[in-house]
Design goal:
Blueprint (H helix, E strand, L loop, with lengths): L18 H4 L2 E5 L3 E6 L3 E6 L2 E10 L2 E11 L5 H15 L1 E10 L7 E10 L6 E10 L5 E10 L5 H9 L2 E2 L2
Antiparallel strand pairs: 1-2, 2-10, 3-4, 4-5, 5-9, 6-7, 7-8, 8-9
Protein backbone atom coordinates (compact mmCIF):
# COMPACT_ATOMS: atom_id res chain seq x y z
CA UNK A 1 0.00 0.00 0.00
CA UNK A 2 1.23 3.46 -0.82
CA UNK A 3 0.61 5.97 1.92
CA UNK A 4 0.41 9.44 0.48
CA UNK A 5 2.58 11.22 2.98
CA UNK A 6 4.81 14.12 2.11
CA UNK A 7 6.55 15.41 5.19
CA UNK A 8 8.05 18.81 5.41
CA UNK A 9 8.97 19.92 8.92
CA UNK A 10 7.33 20.12 12.34
CA UNK A 11 3.33 18.78 14.19
CA UNK A 12 0.02 19.36 16.26
CA UNK A 13 -3.17 21.33 16.44
CA UNK A 14 -6.66 21.27 17.77
CA UNK A 15 -10.10 22.20 16.49
CA UNK A 16 -13.72 21.33 17.11
CA UNK A 17 -15.12 19.86 20.33
CA UNK A 18 -16.38 16.32 19.91
CA UNK A 19 -15.43 14.92 23.33
CA UNK A 20 -17.34 11.68 22.83
CA UNK A 21 -15.28 10.71 19.79
CA UNK A 22 -12.02 11.48 21.62
CA UNK A 23 -12.82 8.84 24.25
CA UNK A 24 -12.39 6.09 21.63
CA UNK A 25 -8.91 7.19 20.56
CA UNK A 26 -5.56 5.46 21.10
CA UNK A 27 -2.94 7.91 22.41
CA UNK A 28 0.45 8.42 20.72
CA UNK A 29 2.94 10.33 22.88
CA UNK A 30 6.24 12.01 22.14
CA UNK A 31 8.28 14.39 24.30
CA UNK A 32 6.85 17.45 22.55
CA UNK A 33 3.35 16.37 21.48
CA UNK A 34 0.55 13.89 22.01
CA UNK A 35 -2.40 12.96 19.79
CA UNK A 36 -4.89 10.14 19.46
CA UNK A 37 -6.16 8.06 16.54
CA UNK A 38 -9.20 5.82 16.21
CA UNK A 39 -8.96 2.29 17.57
CA UNK A 40 -7.63 -0.15 15.01
CA UNK A 41 -5.29 2.31 13.30
CA UNK A 42 -1.71 1.03 13.05
CA UNK A 43 1.61 2.76 13.66
CA UNK A 44 3.70 2.65 10.49
CA UNK A 45 6.60 4.97 11.42
CA UNK A 46 7.71 5.28 15.03
CA UNK A 47 10.69 7.55 15.67
CA UNK A 48 11.48 9.97 18.54
CA UNK A 49 10.37 13.09 16.62
CA UNK A 50 7.97 11.56 14.09
CA UNK A 51 5.09 9.12 14.10
CA UNK A 52 2.84 8.00 11.25
CA UNK A 53 -0.39 6.15 11.95
CA UNK A 54 -2.53 4.68 9.16
CA UNK A 55 -6.22 3.92 9.22
CA UNK A 56 -8.30 1.06 7.95
CA UNK A 57 -10.16 2.80 5.09
CA UNK A 58 -8.53 2.60 1.70
CA UNK A 59 -9.23 3.59 -1.91
CA UNK A 60 -6.97 1.84 -4.40
CA UNK A 61 -3.47 2.08 -2.97
CA UNK A 62 -4.25 5.22 -0.92
CA UNK A 63 -5.07 4.96 2.76
CA UNK A 64 -6.13 7.44 5.41
CA UNK A 65 -3.16 8.58 7.51
CA UNK A 66 -2.08 10.90 10.30
CA UNK A 67 1.54 11.98 10.61
CA UNK A 68 3.01 13.97 13.47
CA UNK A 69 6.42 15.55 13.46
CA UNK A 70 8.38 18.17 15.37
CA UNK A 71 11.20 20.33 14.08
CA UNK A 72 13.15 23.56 14.48
CA UNK A 73 12.23 26.81 12.82
CA UNK A 74 13.59 30.30 12.63
CA UNK A 75 11.56 33.38 11.91
CA UNK A 76 8.68 35.43 13.13
CA UNK A 77 5.85 33.13 14.18
CA UNK A 78 4.38 29.82 13.18
CA UNK A 79 2.62 31.21 10.08
CA UNK A 80 5.95 31.97 8.39
CA UNK A 81 7.34 28.53 9.26
CA UNK A 82 4.17 26.91 7.94
CA UNK A 83 4.28 28.83 4.67
CA UNK A 84 7.84 27.68 4.01
CA UNK A 85 6.96 24.05 4.71
CA UNK A 86 3.84 24.21 2.54
CA UNK A 87 5.77 25.78 -0.34
CA UNK A 88 7.97 22.67 -0.37
CA UNK A 89 4.88 20.43 -0.32
CA UNK A 90 3.18 22.30 -3.19
CA UNK A 91 6.15 21.60 -5.44
CA UNK A 92 6.02 17.88 -4.61
CA UNK A 93 2.36 17.23 -5.57
CA UNK A 94 0.24 17.83 -8.67
CA UNK A 95 -2.58 20.36 -8.89
CA UNK A 96 -2.40 21.57 -5.27
CA UNK A 97 -5.23 23.85 -4.14
CA UNK A 98 -5.64 25.57 -0.76
CA UNK A 99 -9.28 25.52 0.35
CA UNK A 100 -9.04 27.04 3.84
CA UNK A 101 -6.63 28.67 6.27
CA UNK A 102 -7.59 29.44 9.86
CA UNK A 103 -6.18 29.96 13.32
CA UNK A 104 -6.88 27.07 15.70
CA UNK A 105 -6.68 26.65 19.44
CA UNK A 106 -4.12 24.01 20.31
CA UNK A 107 -3.79 22.72 23.86
CA UNK A 108 -0.39 23.80 25.21
CA UNK A 109 0.38 26.12 22.28
CA UNK A 110 0.34 29.90 22.06
CA UNK A 111 -0.14 29.89 18.31
CA UNK A 112 -1.74 27.40 15.93
CA UNK A 113 -2.83 27.45 12.31
CA UNK A 114 -4.62 24.94 10.08
CA UNK A 115 -4.26 24.81 6.29
CA UNK A 116 -6.76 22.72 4.37
CA UNK A 117 -6.00 21.67 0.82
CA UNK A 118 -6.59 19.11 -1.88
CA UNK A 119 -4.27 17.78 -4.53
CA UNK A 120 -4.38 15.36 -7.43
CA UNK A 121 -3.55 11.77 -6.65
CA UNK A 122 -0.96 10.13 -8.86
CA UNK A 123 -2.83 6.82 -8.75
CA UNK A 124 -6.53 7.63 -8.20
CA UNK A 125 -9.28 9.38 -10.12
CA UNK A 126 -10.09 11.45 -7.04
CA UNK A 127 -8.31 14.13 -5.07
CA UNK A 128 -6.58 13.75 -1.73
CA UNK A 129 -7.91 15.99 1.07
CA UNK A 130 -5.37 17.14 3.63
CA UNK A 131 -5.30 19.16 6.86
CA UNK A 132 -1.91 20.55 7.92
CA UNK A 133 -1.71 21.95 11.44
CA UNK A 134 1.28 23.89 12.77
CA UNK A 135 1.63 24.96 16.42
CA UNK A 136 4.27 26.41 18.72
CA UNK A 137 4.66 27.79 22.21
CA UNK A 138 5.98 31.25 23.00
CA UNK A 139 9.74 31.28 23.39
CA UNK A 140 10.19 27.94 21.63
CA UNK A 141 12.11 27.48 18.39
CA UNK A 142 10.26 24.19 17.81
CA UNK A 143 7.13 23.68 15.72
CA UNK A 144 4.77 20.77 16.04
CA UNK A 145 3.21 19.66 12.73
CA UNK A 146 0.27 17.32 12.16
CA UNK A 147 -0.84 16.16 8.73
CA UNK A 148 -4.16 14.36 8.31
CA UNK A 149 -4.95 13.05 4.84
CA UNK A 150 -7.14 10.67 2.90
CA UNK A 151 -8.81 10.37 -0.49
CA UNK A 152 -11.81 12.72 -0.48
CA UNK A 153 -14.34 9.86 -0.60
CA UNK A 154 -13.09 8.42 2.72
CA UNK A 155 -11.97 11.60 4.52
CA UNK A 156 -14.14 11.42 7.64
CA UNK A 157 -14.33 14.97 8.97
CA UNK A 158 -15.83 13.91 12.32
CA UNK A 159 -13.07 11.35 12.86
CA UNK A 160 -10.31 13.75 11.78
CA UNK A 161 -11.73 16.50 14.01
CA UNK A 162 -11.58 14.08 16.96
CA UNK A 163 -7.90 13.48 16.18
CA UNK A 164 -7.29 17.26 16.11
CA UNK A 165 -9.20 17.70 19.36
CA UNK A 166 -6.89 15.19 21.04
CA UNK A 167 -3.67 17.04 20.18
CA UNK A 168 -1.52 18.58 22.87
CA UNK A 169 1.74 20.46 22.44
CA UNK A 170 4.25 20.05 25.27
CA UNK A 171 7.13 22.19 23.94
Amino acid sequence: MLVLVVLVTALAGCTGDDGAAAADLTAHERDEFTFGTPSGWEVRTDEPEEIEVVGTDQVGDSIEAVTGKVGNYEGDGVRLAAQGALDVFRVAVDDHEFTDERDVDVTGADEGILFESTYASATLDERIRQWDVFATAEGSSRVVYLSLKAPESIFDETEMTAVLDSLEVTL
